[in-house]
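Technical annex, item 7. During the second reporting period the consortium partners agreed on a shared format for inverse folding records so that results from different sites could be compared directly. Each record opens with the tokenized structure and is followed by the designed sequence. A conforming record, contributed by the partner at site C, is shown below for reference.
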């Protein structure tokens, strides 16, 4: 429950079956809302591939995508940090202490689902720029690009995907591309949440322009 409250402080859950069911519905709905606009793009990536998720929380996307896209033989990486408080903004400034994950629970969820090919990088010990790129796919849902402006992390993201990788991020519905982004191939895909709210998915890299 503590791990859930850190990544989703708006949810007032208690440890009972009702809360478990609501959490399951929330997480499954988020996964399908991301899968549908990304299915063609991610299915087209050649395997095996190297994948990095920034801010996986409890690992819902790694588990879901691994099973939907057959990532069993891929080199998966997760960048997460243990947190004590939640510092969410909307497309806001960069904080060096914005971690709100629980690495022990992330490992437990991955193990429970039989996802054993994930290297977890502790964000408090390893800088983003020092991760072992390049990656074929880098993504983050409700992390960089949504709570914290992608513009502040752009150099690191470009360094981690190199010239041929792609990056995908959740961005607010009113997202406006910044000047450096406009110089590169990208596209915005609509994503509709189960609560009828909406954000967009920013897809950055050669695949965004059909190259």
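Designed sequence (site C submission):
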């Amino acid at each position: 429950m503590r791990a859930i409250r850190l990544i989703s402080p708006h949810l007032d859950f208690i440890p009972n079956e009702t809360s478990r069911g609501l959490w399951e519905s929330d997480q499954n709905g988020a996964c399908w809302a991301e899968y549908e606009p990304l299915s063609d793009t991610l299915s087209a990536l050649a395997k095996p591939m190297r994948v990095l998720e920034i801010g996986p929380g409890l690992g819902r996307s790694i588990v879901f995508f691994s099973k939907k896209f057959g990532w069993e033989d891929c080199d998966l990486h997760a960048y997460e940090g243990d947190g004590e408080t939640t510092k969410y903004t909307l497309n806001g400034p960069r904080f060096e202490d914005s971690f709100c994950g629980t690495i022990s629970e992330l490992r437990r969820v991955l193990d429970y689902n039989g996802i054993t090919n994930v290297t977890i990088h502790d964000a408090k010990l390893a800088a983003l720029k020092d991760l072992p790129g390049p990656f074929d796919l880098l993504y983050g849902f409700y992390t960089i690009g949504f709570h914290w402006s992608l513009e502040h992390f752009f150099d690191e993201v470009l360094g981690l995907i190199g010239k041929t990788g792609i990056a995908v991020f959740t961005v607010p519905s009113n997202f406006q591309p910044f000047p450096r982004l406009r110089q590169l191939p990208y596209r915005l895909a609509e994503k509709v949440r189960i609560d009828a709210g909406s954000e967009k998915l920013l897809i950055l890299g050669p695949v965004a322009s059909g190259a």
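The beta strands are 50-54, 75-80, 118-122, 137-140, 143-148, 166-171, 186-192, 198-204. The two ends are 44 Å apart (CA to CA). All partners now use this format for quarterly exchanges.
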